[in-house]
Amino acid sequence: MDLEIVFNELSARILAPDISTARQWMSELISTRREAKGCGLKAMRTKEDFWAIILAENYPLSRWLHDPEVNKNERTFLLTRATKTPLCVDITDVKIKSIQDSDCELSSLQGTQAEGFKVAYYLETLAISFNSESLWNSSRIKLELIQIDDNEEVRPESVEVLHASDKIHVLEHANWIKNRLQPDRLNGMELWHRRDELFSSLQFCKAGNKQLRRLRTGERKLELVLEVLSVLDKCAKNCQAGHFSLEGYPFEESGESEPTLNKYSKERTFLCPDGKVRLFERHVKLKECNWRIHFFPKVETTKEGKKTKVIIG
């Protein structure tokens, strides 16, 4: 799979004190970028205004590109290897929509919106910065994710984005990058976009896509979810005469009690892909991560006969 690095535009929010420092920032950025490329991270995604960056007073990036004091190889590397603009160019349409319409903001510790970090977080890749402030001299950046859940409630959460402003930072992440580049290493966003390919007998309500998209590569919760979805898909394919059962599998599956339904039926009611609203009483409990996967078996009549589809709420 291809994986790219994402430029943190906030690292260009202050000017270098002089042209010499600006040149140093650019050299460090390119050195970091080269190390990332050597690890398998191809292009660098940036905002559309990347080429309009002002590095120091009277020293825009366009002047740096023609500065005879700058190493020619550095200038060539930036022009030929470095960038894709805007941030979401060439990402599949569904992924662009997921990132742009994700009902969330990602902010730095100072409360400033961080678009580059948001793309890096959802694509689960590395962010790269100028080493322009002490804040960026770190291999991991903690940010605040502010997301609106399905009940229109605002939920802030602290998250971490892998980051580099020096080639040493890239080397710290080398093993992670190697694992991330493996073709079978799914994250939640990829799971959501490949759901029909991976689970042909499952259908997914939109209500769950935010939770799925936020699962990270290698996260235990993702492993548990994939295991349950795989079994639900298999059982749907093997279902006889509409009798859907998880018997024989090591999952705790049950329905809801009457008191629970009386109190929480709204939270267990989902709009399904066929436009119908259904109460999802049956669920699998994932005690290890305190999640429940609510599902609804549905029998469909096709040319080949009756088939069972399992809707995931």
Question: What topology does this entry show?
Answer:
Layout: E1 5-7, H1 19-38, E2 44-45, E3 54-56, E4 59-60, H2 61-64, H3 72-81, E5 83-84, H4 93-100, E6 104-107, H5 115-123, E7 127-128, E8 140-148, E9 154-164, H6 167-172, H7 174-180, H8 188-193, H9 195-198, E10 202-204, H10 209-213, H11 220-238, E11 252-254, H12 258-264, E12 269-271, E13 277-279, E14 283-286, E15 291-302, E16 305-312
Parallel strand pairs: 1-2, 1-7, 2-5, 7-9, 10-16
Antiparallel strand pairs: 3-4, 6-8, 8-9, 11-14, 12-13, 14-15, 15-16
List keywords for this structure.
34% helix; elongated; alpha/beta; five-stranded mixed β-sheet; single chain
Detailed description of the structure:
The protein is an alpha/beta fold and 313 residues long. The chain has helices at 19-38, 61-64, 72-81, 93-100, 115-123, 167-172, 174-180, 188-193, 195-198, 209-213, 220-238, 258-264; strands spanning 5-7, 44-45, 54-56, 59-60, 83-84, 104-107, 127-128, 140-148, 154-164, 202-204, 252-254, 269-271, 277-279, 283-286, 291-302, 305-312. A seven-stranded mixed beta sheet has the order 5-2-1-7-9-8-6. A five-stranded mixed beta sheet has the order 10-16-15-14-11, covered by helices on one side. Strands 3-4 form a two-stranded antiparallel sheet. The chain is elongated and about 75 Å long. Mean pLDDT is 83; it is low at 92-102.
